[in-house]
TrEMBL record:
Pfam families: Vsr (PF03852). GO terms for biological process: mismatch repair. Keywords: DNA damage, DNA repair, Endonuclease, Hydrolase, Nuclease. It comes from Candidatus Sungbacteria bacterium RIFCSPLOWO2_12_FULL_41_11. SUPFAM superfamilies: Restriction endonuclease-like. This is Very short patch repair endonuclease.
Amino acid sequence: MVDRINIKQRSRNMAAIHSSGNVTTELNLVRFFRKEGISHWRRHQKIFNVRPDFIFPKQRVVIFVHGCFWHGCKLHRSIPKTNVKFWREKINGNKKRDIAVLRKIKHFGWKPLIVWEHGIKKYPEDVIKKIKKALN
């Protein structure tokens, strides 16, 4: 499909959009937590200058919900056909930051868990099993 807006205007439009996070995927995970009786979690609570999607303070476990596009999922990654260099650099930068954040969390003695968007959609039982194992 042809874009009806010129590149400069499209760039301004996209820059004006502020992310609200991976809300739908996170809310699906919240539903699974409630269904499975998983409690005592906090959402988007800042620790060590990092804001994980979920933390379990008592067990010192943090969960990051990674969207397949934004975090460069090996199974579902796809780079948009326009502005390829920008998107490749953006996603690679996200991946490098993810690694740094995981190191930081581990350094302070917490256990980080990454839950992928596709995992929550296709294999919710496996995701819950992985989370329960980390919490015990």
